[in-house]
Predict the structure.
Amino acid sequence: MADHYASGTWQVKQGNDQEFVDRWTEFLQWSRANYPSILVANLIRDRRVAGHYVSFAEWTDEASRDAWKQNPEFMTHFDACVALCEHMSGADFDRVATV
């Protein structure tokens, strides 16, 4: 079980949903190919709010997650996703409890 996470909240511009999903998938395929310490990444869609998505990825360690974000190619892939959004916010998390 992972203890380190990266997460994003995305509000995709109307009519761009499939292209956003395709770009996000490409971004995370690149991420997994270059950073084996990413365990799993998910993109989930809000059933009630059109264009609202949440992404989260589990990482084995904080240093790898930070190196991923510092790679210049990260911004190329990330910006391709953001370009299709009205709003995006992201955060890093660490596990503090499990029930």
